[in-house]
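[job 0417] fold request received: Barstar (barnase inhibitor) domain-containing protein
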Amino acid sequence: MTGLLPAPGLTGLLLGTTPPGTYRLPPTDTAPRVTALAAEAEWRAAALRLGGVTTKTAFLDRCATDLEFPEWFGRNWDALADCLTDLSWWREEGKARGYLLVTEDWAAFRKAAPKEARTAEAIFGDAVDYWADAEAPLAVLLG
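[job 0417] inference complete; emitting structure tokens
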């Protein structure tokens, strides 16, 4: 279940005082602002733009494009889970303090494809749990 980002909000998440999780993006924040703040805090961040996405196929295609998944991404739920538990595709030179996935237009996607949104949210949650105790955790903000 996705909840509100607890106080102190994004700052707490990026500083490590708020545990990594799958949270709703506060309505006062935007994906570009959040990804910029994450970069300043030495987190790797990516925005998943879901405007106009209404199907599983379109969702997985958008993941492949926006998140720059590797060629081996099979465009299915298992492959999404694999990419989110093997972040080698996301790593760059240097060390990241964490990884942040921010979605845009999540509510519209959830309304258009509720079953697919629940599945994606479960996969996000499992990936967050997988990285929770790592030196560089994963967090997801659904906006």
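[job 0417] notes: The first strand starts at residue 3 and ends at 4. The two ends are 15 Å apart (CA to CA).
[job 0417] exit 0
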